[in-house]
Amino acid sequence: MGVKGSSSSSPPVVYLVLALAFNVAVLCNGGKTSSFVRKAEKTVDMPLDSDVFQVPPGYNAPQQVHITQGDHVGKAVIVSWVTVDEPGSNAVLYWSDNSKNKRRAEGHIKRYSYYTYKSGYIHHCTLRRLEYNTKYYYEVGLGNTTRQFSFMTPPAVGPDVPYTFGVIGDLGQTFDSNKTLTHYENNQLKGQAVLFIGDLSYADDYPNHDQVRWDTWARFVERSVAYQPWIWVAGNHELDYAPSIGEKIPFKPYTHRYHVPYKASGSTAPFWYSIKRASAHIIVLSSYSAYGKYTPQYNWLEEELPRVNRSETPWLIVLLHSPWYNSFNYHYMEGESMRVMFEPWFVQHKVDIVFAGHVHGYERSERISNIAYNIDNRNCTPVRDQSAPVYITIGDGGNIEGIASNLREPQPSYSAFREASFGHAILDIKNRTHAYYSWHRNDDGNPVEGDTVWFFNRYWHPVDDSTTK
Ligand SMILES: *[C@@H]1O[C@H](CO)[C@@H](O)[C@H](O)[C@H]1NC(C)=O
Ligand SMILES: *[C@@H]1O[C@H](CO)[C@@H](O)[C@H](O)[C@H]1NC(C)=O
Ligand SMILES: *[C@@H]1O[C@H](CO)[C@@H](O)[C@H](O)[C@H]1NC(C)=O
Ligand SMILES: *[C@@H]1O[C@H](CO)[C@@H](O)[C@H](O)[C@H]1NC(C)=O
Ligand SMILES: [Fe+2]
């Protein structure tokens, strides 16, 4: 139920075409391929002297400020920033709205070299023992140019706690990326934290992986991520693996710049981990780390899934970069080997939603699984499965590589909705049974919803919530 408003801002002709396309889709038992046609334009990176890349004024001013959840339950925050003139202070000064009492936390500094580039002083500092549901102010750059920011901690973890996540993937730093971020910021549904589905800066699309583009990206998104946590997923553009220029350590820039609380969930590497936030248990996986049987990621996930307590966190959401169900002619079947390894577990544990990126478009599946095949029995087609997650591909942030406009035909019946547009989504969890999900294309004004669904929780309310027959 619940698909509506798919073309509210489009002219009547487009609406008619859409209606026809929908009829055809129904006849062939497939989903809907939106007929919304995005104007064909090149996606180009914003130039280095763009307003969004400006270095904050002042001696040794902290720049690239960003925060993420710092523990398993949302009572800690990792604050990160970069200074360039000198190391400066490692400390963060912070205080809550209802207390004048300023607390101080000490962080540490990392630097890295990459080919001919040497990074600034990258600071990471964890603020712990925060109160739930409280506004905090924090200051970085103590002793030199000090800058102040603020954030809200989430409510205590619990089964009926409403919470609103933004969902953004494959953002990059083009003019379109800036539109996506602006659109997200202006969304009246007011995301409280972002699930970022991998592929951050696309610095590796520049000669020798020009690391300056990691710095510009972090300055660009500071206006959001300094004030609300973004939950990080590693994508292929985080690998920066370039042996031809002597860079043989995968994820070097990413791991120096972005810290995640992986140890808090018993993980041994920052590429796979989990957090609990409000009524959601979020599992982050890495498409670019080993996941075969007996590997650390495999072992961790096998132990992690039974730990999820749906009485405490009804919503089980998985984030990974390379989609398992994708009907675009880009990265087709790249996620297949991971699907083969983990899909039976997702069905067994009734995962609600899986978000992926990588493909630069938007697609939402019905609840389907493809786990019956055993090499012998020929049962190798996806089937409707009410214990299975909905798979959403949201690699449509608008990066320099452009839109994925070549779709496979006919649309497979498991694909409920797909469109070659840039945008973002909001997952608005209402309580243990209901979550309202909406996808917003950049080309539309803010109130317009390109795709919407009421998701019913698989544990508490496993009623059919499919949107196509
Ligand atoms: C910058 O701050 C650091 C740490 O507080 C301090 O040691 C240093 O003297 C300051 N530099 C200047 C030029 O004020
Ligand atoms: C990016 O978007 C912001 C907010 O809409 C705007 O102020 C800024 O001028 C934009 N910058 C570029 C380079 O498009
Ligand atoms: C699951 O969470 C509920 C609610 O917080 C709690 O009462 C219960 O003991 C937990 N179950 C386990 C197995 O930890
Ligand atoms: C959960 O939220 C939905 C949607 O807002 C609402 O219809 C339903 O009554 C809520 N359930 C409870 C138990 O409050
Ligand atoms: Fe990717």
From TrEMBL:
Provide the GO MF annotations for this entry. Answer: acid phosphatase activity; aminopeptidase activity; metal ion binding
Domain named Calcineurin-like phosphoesterase: which ranges? 164-362
**Record domain Purple acid phosphatase C-terminal: where:** 388-446
Q: Which Gene3D superfamilies match?
A: 3.60.21.10, Purple acid phosphatase-like, N-terminal
One Pfam family, please name it: Pur_ac_phosph_N
CDD domains in alphabetical order: MPP_PAPs
Q: What is its EC number?
A: 3.1.3.2
Q: Which InterPro entries match?
A: Calcineurin-like_PHP (IPR004843), Metallo-depent_PP-like (IPR029052), MPP_PAP (IPR041792), PAPs-like (IPR039331), PAPs_C (IPR025733), PAPs_N (IPR015914), Purple_acid_Pase-like_N (IPR008963)
Task: Tell me what reaction this enzyme catalyses.
Answer: a phosphate monoester + H2O = an alcohol + phosphate
> Which ranges carry the Purple acid phosphatase N-terminal domain?
62-153
| Similarity field | Belongs to the metallophosphoesterase superfamily. Purple acid phosphatase family.
The protein's name: Purple acid phosphatase
